[in-house]
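To assess whether the prediction recovers the assembly geometry, we first specified each molecular entity separately, as shown.
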Amino acid sequence: MITQMQVKGLMFDPYNNAYIVILRDDDQSEMLPIWVGKSEASSISLAIENVAPPRPMTHDFMKAYLDAFNAKVISVVITDLNEHTYFAKVHLTYADSEYTVDSRPSDAIALALRTQAPIFASESVIRKQSSEELDQWLENLKPEDFGKLDS
Amino acid sequence: MEEHAPQTTEPLIQLAVNRVVEDSNTDTRIVVLTRADGGADHFMVWVGASEGEAIRRALDTSTTPRPMSHDLIKSFGEHLGIKMERAVLTDVKSSTYYATVFLENKGVVRTIDSRPSDAIALALRCQAPIYVTQDVWKRRTGQNLDAWLSKLETKNIGAQEV
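The predicted structure of the complete assembly is given in tokenized form:
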């Protein structure tokens, strides 16, 4: 079973000096936080805000690479969570064949947002994710921790 | 006849990535390239920290537990049968370098516009050659920056060893 997720936003995690991509399902019943690095967060932020930078960023380049041969991203799936590391798969079609490529969720999400491909999470990832822990963590956040990405 | 030779036939200069230098003052990286023919002159490109680290990892042939962005692009190529033929630094405008990546699949060649950092990071992973046009080579910056660069490297010596 997989559930379709939407990117709800990005937050800065001051405790880990990292960024969190928040995914939510369409019913707003499940939430999946994914910790990503600064440059990955910046790339996802540009895609969310639909900002075209003057030069192609790495994921724009990635999209151009696939577009050059008319390879299409069908979907991306967050497949596994292991010791706070998430695993993802990018599903592609190219010349009537399907391909599945192993990826970090940050790359998969940054690419999905640029190619309008749906993002899914496997049930096991959502089950493993302890939302209780996250709720507690969110309660401890100060309002100033929520802000626009500075890059 | 020679005087009519178009500029585009001027041979490209092949470059080799020599090293990535950390500029801790600005949180950028300087990619130092040298001529593959052994010429002493350097070609330097300023890139962002994460792009610089992507190039450094390829130079060190260090692996990460999970595929980084350029590893993913390489992986797409391996799955789909797309070969990276070469990267060419084609232009410089307002101190910004432009690159073109040449890709090939079943005899069809496609080019894509790229920042030099992505072109170099992918070329190193795909063992594709990196070239610069004669024009861009002549207009390169940092021709007199060798002394400054060595000073920067001395200052960062600790960081370089990590």
